[in-house]
Amino acid sequence: MNLGELLAARRMTRNFEPRRLERALLEELCLLARRAPSAGFAQGAELIILDTPEARESFWDLTLPAGERADFAWPGLLQAPALVLPAADSRRYLSRYREADKASGAAGGLGESPQAWPVPYWLIDCAFVVQNLLLAAAERGLGALFFGLFNGEAEVRAALGVPEGVEMLGVVALGRPAPDRPSSSLARGWRDPDEILHWGCWGASRR
Questions:
Q1: For residue range 88-131, what is the model confidence (pLDDT) as tens digits?
Q2: Is 59 helix (H, G, I), strand (E, B) or coil?
């Protein structure tokens, strides 16, 4: 697929075959994903890969305990053979922007604290990595789903040893797609381009 076809083909997968993915493939996908924009080339996106049955089951025990799974709408998600947890390390950005070439320029002061930044670029850059991972999986014919870490984040952080200063964005499930039903949210359809493209100022169309 060319890039346009890949962007159009990418979908969120919520049902997976349980067949394992080779570690070499997972590593390749993750290293492709990291080739994303990075402020100051700080490279603060970290990827925690859970690809063993024990690691995945521990994750699900913390975030979706067995007693709550009977009513879970997407049981096939629990079969995904790999879970990748993207995390953004703000400390790398603070350290990078204390270096001479950044501290003496227009970005001076950004190395002082996360609050000095107009927006948290470590989160933006990590989100770029997540999108790359979704696209790389689609290009390989794999299914992928990004979902939020809504329950048990503190317990997951503790279990995985995630340090302070590192923010977890969520989880990417990876695997071979199984027959799935689309999300009901897709019935909303795409917004009209004239609603989202503002030519020159807010609310101005190209016509």
A1: 999 999 999 999 999 988 888 999 999 999 999 999 999 999 99
A2: helix
Q: Which long-range contacts (CB under 8 A, 24 or more apart) does 184-187 make?
A: none
For 95, other C-beta atoms within 10 Å of its C-beta total 14
Residue 19, C-beta contacts closer than 8 angstroms, at least 6 positions apart: 81, 175, 176
180 contacts 74 by C-beta, under 8 angstroms: no
Cα distance between residue 36 and residue 144, in whole Å:
18
CA nearest 93: which of 126, 133, 132?
126
> Which residue type occupies 95?
S
CB count within 10 Å of CB 80 equals 29
CB 165 within 8 A of CB 113: no
Residue 16 pairs in a beta bridge with 177
Q: Is 18 helix (H, G, I), strand (E, B) or coil?
A: coil
- Burial level of 177, CB count in 10 A (0-12/13-18/19+)? buried
185 sits in which H/E element: none
Residues 195, 198: Cα–Cα separation, whole Å: 8
Looking at residue 207, its pLDDT comes to 73
The share of the chain scoring above pLDDT 70, in percent, equals 100
Q: Render pLDDT for 59-84 as a digit per residue (tens, 0 to 9).
A: 999 999 999 999 999 999 999 999 99
Q: How far apart are CA 153 and CA 64, in angstroms?
A: 11
